[in-house]
Amino acid sequence: MNRIVSRHNRLLGVALAGISLVSVAAASAGEISVWVWDKAFNGDTMREAGEIYTKDHPDTTFNVDDTASQDDIRAKLQTQLLAGSTEGLPDIVLIQDDVAQKYLQSFPGAFEPLSDSVDMSVFAPYKVAAATFDGKSYSIPFDSGVTGLFYRSDYLEEAGFTPEDLENITWDRLIEIGQTIKEKTGHQLLDLDLNDTGLIRMMMQSAGEWYFNEDGSLNITDNAALKKALETYAKFYQADLVKPVSGWAEYTGAFTSGEVAMVPVGVWITATIKANADQSGKWGVAPIPRMDLEGSVNASNQGGSSWYLLSSSDNKEEAIDFFKTVWAGNEDFYQDILIKRGAVGSLLSAREGEAYKATDEFFGGQPVWQNFSTWLGQIPSVDYGTFTAEVDAAVASQLPGIIQGGDIDAALQAVSDQAQQQMQ
Amino acid sequence: MTWAVFRRALVYVLLSIAAFVSVFPFFWMIIGATNTSADIIRGKTSIGGALLTNAATFFTQVDAPRIFFNSAFIAIVGTVLTLIISSLAGYGFEMFRSRFRERIFALLLLLLSIPFAAMMVPLFVMFSQAKLVNTYVAVIAPTVASIFIIFYFRQATKAFPRELRDAARIDGLSEWQIFLYVYLPVMRSTYAAATIIVFMANWNNYLWPLIVLQTADNKTITLILSALTSAYTPDYGMLLFGTVLATLPTLVIFFVLQRRFVEGMLGAVK
Amino acid sequence: MSSLKLSGVRKSYGAVEVIKGVDLDIESKEFVVFVGPSGCGKSTLLRMIAGLEEITAGELDIGGKRMNGVDPSKRGIAMVFQSYALYPHMTVRENMGFALRFAKVPKEQIERQVLEAARILALDPLLDRFPKELSGGQRQRVAIGRAIVRQPEVFLFDEPLSNLDAELRVHMRIEIARLHKELQATIIYVTHDQVEAMTLADKIVVLRDGVIEQVGKPLELYDNPANQFVAGFIGSPKMNFLPARIVQKDAGTAVIELVHHEGVRLSLPLAGGAVGDLVTLGIRPEHFGLPGEGAADMTLEVDVAEHLGSTSYVYARAAGEPIIIEREESRDQGDQERITVSVDPSRTYLFDQAGQRIR
């Protein structure tokens, strides 16, 4: 006879579940918990910082948890802050700069105002601005997303150009160069993903503009920078210089495999590019082009994140001391993480360090880090606002139409309408 | 070639395409687990020699025994509890008359249409106040009364011969005994089918475990794999190796129960 | 073995009353058959006796003890279902011993009783088979065996032969009759087949619309139906009913004339009634005589004749009314267009307009 399940089994199951680790993630006194989303880049960097601190302060240890993706972390933060329950939240959490304002504005009081205890002037101003709300700053800036135009120097040469030809140019000039490259080498210029508005935001920020005005209202239809960015974007497609891709793997695959000649992107792509050791010497980095618009410079930002301290933390003093000692004070640390992982920190004084002055063989002996540091100081500050993600989605939905030659003004209006609706 | 022969060939071609499309992802996954990340991005479709390397990387980066234990515990306990509670409910709805029966059942079906995201926050508040965040209980509890499974069992019970219950009552069995000794054995294939469905759902459950599990040592394999995919430079070889491991339990359960599963789908209850 | 008594038993589902006051006495060791058309309530009544349905009003006594509300397993009954209701996941042996297992009867005794029942029904070679490996007839026997093992006071059969083919049905009927004798059992048997009723029953209970129409021995019901319904239900082929009118009335007798066959007049004993009253004359197909044998002759047009060998059924028509005639040894009759039969008044029945028998 089959006695598959009986009442007893049910009780046993419940008991087991109960006995099982009712482990609430309470950081043991002196243990600082940190949430990051990438083991190799931000995870290991934070661990290294933690080790430096623990050496001098053996009572304080660090638990860096990298087992969640960035989307996961955002989902958890959002849900828990909304639920008003901080059970299990870490002491420190890494948040990407362009979504930080959303959290600061939606959940006032959830984060510690670090500007009360730490001198923020040591960091790149645009990073501090991204985390400033109501006169106080809430983050310790981490990696900068300072952008550069990474290019295949061998293709460039084959097409008859020199690295100097890429200095201080406009996007329109780049399109011309790209056409020649395509003629002479057969390679496309860029790869672009229609779901990713990164390039457009990059262009917009280079002119000091963003989706929102200072008061938080939408800045779309009158946004000259955005309009110019969209026009430029469309031009790439119309000149047939784009390899279309979808998703991260395809995106990185297109340039690591040598299919496309250039990629304008944040400095954090370095690790990905350098992972192909056999391409050493075949790459270079130029400043990104600027838009043919007054106010646009050859510097911008894409991505980049910062450390935030949650108000619910039990270890606030240790955390703040940790930040002051290592992140706001230890220049050697910044050299080390640059060399090891290509992490360009936001501590202004670190730019004077050895590693930053070094040349990089991989990039044909260029002093890339020096260049990035210079550009870092030139990035225009913008206020990312609370609804960047929503406007992004609206812009992305218009891209397919725009690249086919659709009316840009009409597209802008549509973006504005959709965003307006989302923001209700 | 006659029309009949041509049609036959056409059918085979179509079925082959469909079979290929279904099987290819598994094929790709297994091949990928033996290749390096670079090879995978380049689209290599032959077996490589990196299986051991990928395995080594995976086991160093992930606390596999612990993570798999989490997934297994949650999936197994969750499945057992769901089967018990939901099958009892389905049986009860079909077997016992009551004035409110249909109205309650209609209400349950209505609840099915509420998206989980709407319940997520209140659920979290509940468990937070009960100090049960980051526990197995919190992950399992919301899933045990699966409305879908209740519905499934109620439908299946319609095919259960009423007279068996009458005969059992005359033979002196209490209602509980009838459920255990008559209903359960007769409905074996329904339970098999339900086991597969529920186990897969629990094993692959993503959103709620994401919200309610906080520490790395409590997370399930689905969460870990997801995190690994969103690294800045994912190691696809290692990732696919981990995915193969993660897929195994469901495959095993399916193969073990598949005979019964097919029976259950055909509704062969005599 | 026990006796059974139903007093004023009623059953309602909500506002609908399906059993409308049944009184019945069943003797110990009697074979009683509940018979009636679909929906008459016979199965419901059986299930109420079994305890599977609640008794809305009235009393049920088994063996002199009040059984209303008593659990089915404690009433001393065993039931054989139309679809056998065998537990598909158990062997024959386990099926038969199932109830005893739950009564906590020691294993050796269960084995003994199962073997005994198996012997009675010749089930020995099948004991370790599963129900799906058995034929319909074998399954039915297992179902009966399961009932026997319980050693009940009363056996209840719910249309047990309906799912069997014709030949098997005859065979099982005899088996059941034999069982009744051997076990000396009280049996209540439900069927819609009046042949089963006639052949098996000590007593037949005819039901219609939740009411008992007549109770009695089979031949009593055949010879002496209390109303038109029973008269038409018992006996196959059905009794013919012809409209008639009283044309002459003396004390104690009446002359009636068939409405559609003026000229056919019969003199019958009849107590009440008056000239001009409309009545119904009932004649069984087998009670028509050859021309000249009876009191009056009728000539009819033949529609169809069926020849079964020793018997023939002639489907005839008179003035648009269908009549069935049963004839022995009359194969050539069907080839004719017309047939003449005679009516013997002593083999007729009179019913009033309400269907009640009048004498």
TrEMBL record, chain A:
Q: Where in the cell is it found?
A: Periplasm
InterPro entries per the UniProt record, alphabetical: Bact_solute-bd_prot1, SBP
Q: Does the keyword Ribosomal protein apply?
A: no
Q: Where is the signal peptide?
A: 1-25
Keyword check for Signal:
yes
Annotated transmembrane regions:
none
| A cellular-component GO term for this protein | periplasmic space
Keywords from the UniProt entry: Periplasm, Signal
Q: Which family does it belong to?
A: Belongs to the bacterial solute-binding protein 1 family.
Q: What is this protein called?
A: Extracellular solute-binding protein
Automatic annotation (TrEMBL), chain B:
Q: Which GO terms describe its cellular component?
A: plasma membrane
Entry-linked InterPro entries? MetI-like, MetI-like_sf
Keyword vocabulary terms for this entry: Cell membrane, Membrane, Transmembrane, Transmembrane helix, Transport
GO biological process annotations for this chain's record? transmembrane transport
Per the database record, which ranges form the ABC transmembrane type-1 domain? 68-257
Q: Where in the cell is it found?
A: Cell membrane
One Pfam family cited in the UniProt record for this chain: BPD_transp_1
Where it mainly occurs, coarsely classed, is membrane
Family recorded in the similarity comment: Belongs to the binding-protein-dependent transport system permease family.
The record ties this protein, via PANTHER family, to: ABC TRANSPORTER PERMEASE PROTEIN MG189-RELATED-RELATED, ARABINOOLIGOSACCHARIDES TRANSPORT SYSTEM PERMEASE PROTEIN ARAQ
- The entry's protein name is Carbohydrate ABC transporter permease
- Classification of source organism: Bacteria, Pseudomonadati, Pseudomonadota, Alphaproteobacteria, Hyphomicrobiales
TrEMBL record, chain C:
Record keywords: ATP-binding, Cell inner membrane, Cell membrane, Membrane, Nucleotide-binding, Transport
The protein's name = Sn-glycerol-3-phosphate ABC transporter ATP-binding protein UgpC
Q: Which Pfam families match?
A: ABC_tran, OB_MalK
Membrane-related topology note: Peripheral membrane protein
Q: Give Gene Ontology CC terms.
A: ATP-binding cassette (ABC) transporter complex, substrate-binding subunit-containing; maltose transport complex
Nucleus is among the record's keywords: no
Q: Where is the ABC transporter domain?
A: 4-234
Subcellular location, in the record's words?
A: Cell inner membrane
Family assignment?
Belongs to the ABC transporter superfamily.
Cross-referenced InterPro entries: AAA+_ATPase (IPR003593), ABC_transporter-like_ATP-bd (IPR003439), ABC_transporter-like_CS (IPR017871), ABC_transpr_MalK-like (IPR015855), ABC_transpr_MalK/UgpC-like (IPR047641), Mo/tungstate-bd_C_term_dom (IPR008995), NA-bd_OB-fold (IPR012340), OB_MalK-like (IPR040582)
Q: Under the GO molecular function aspect, what terms does this record hold?
A: ABC-type maltose transporter activity; ATP binding; ATP hydrolysis activity
